[in-house]
Amino acid sequence: MDLGITGRTALVTGGDSGIGWHTARLLLAEGATVVVTDRDQAALDEAAARLDGADGRLHAFAADITDTAQLAALHDSVREAVGEIDILVQAAGVTGAQGLFHEIDDEGWVSTVETDLLGPVRVTREFLPDLRTGGWGRLVFLASEDAVQPYDDELPYCAAKAGVLALAKGLSRSYAAEGLLVNAVSPAFIHTPMTDAMMQKRSEQLGVPTEEAIASFLDEERPYMELKRRGEPEEVANVVVFLCSDAASFVNGSNYRVDSGSVATI
């Protein structure tokens, strides 16, 4: 299928690994020019080197999405390299503070919300003028199943991601008449460095191999994931790129779950 994004320009945050990296790969394959960003330039450069065949259409600039000055500098670099963007995919995020509510202090809440909610707010505010130019734009936020099905041992993350869904819905009402469509994608338990770290910790706590830790996590913590496996990041990226495309020209204000059925309600 021709997704109609050849010649478009995209910025992907969290683009050095996981869902962000695979989204960048698919956008490049569809003919877009792509800028990837994350905090570490060396990691970005290594990630960019694994994205072959971009023909000069790939750029990598480091920035911390919690830092407005760094985002302004990123915007300057993007303008100089590729001009204005048409597509923004906000994929950067962290697991954040974990534990039961009474175990998490203010710093745990603040640091999680800074990255997982205020980060997307700041990135969007910085690049919104680009997306409102030209009568065509796409903005996709990576949320989570946790936004609508919160878990008691990671409430800061759940609350931040619920905020992302509200942000996406609100923005979708503000700018659709200008041609900017805003949507969210909510994965569940995807095979990324974030869940690798979670499962390594679980493996050590239980004293079992990692694969056994994953299997027990699925049985005990995610019983409605009917495919009984972690999702692959490209399975999420496929949906993200669809929402970035002309094929999604009547999709606005939606939240697409890519979760193997993990969310138990309709």
> What is the CATH homologous superfamily assignment?
NAD(P)-binding Rossmann-like Domain
Helix content: 40-55%
How many individual β-strands?
Answer: 7
- The number of domains is 1
Taken from the alpha-carbon principal axes, the silhouette is: globular
Largest sheet, described in full? Answer: 7 strands, parallel
CATH architecture: 3-Layer(aba) Sandwich
The succession of helices and strands, N to C, reads EHEHEHEHEHEHHHE
* Gyration radius from CA atoms, angstroms: 18 Å
Helix-strand category: alpha/beta
Distance between the termini: 29 Å
CATH class: Alpha Beta
Q: If you consult CATH, what is the topology? A: Rossmann fold
Low-confidence stretches: none
Q: Mean of the pLDDT scores?
A: 96
Strand proportion, as a percent range, falls in 5-15%
> What order do the strands of the largest sheet run in, or round the barrel if closed?
3-2-1-4-5-6-7
Tally the helices: 8
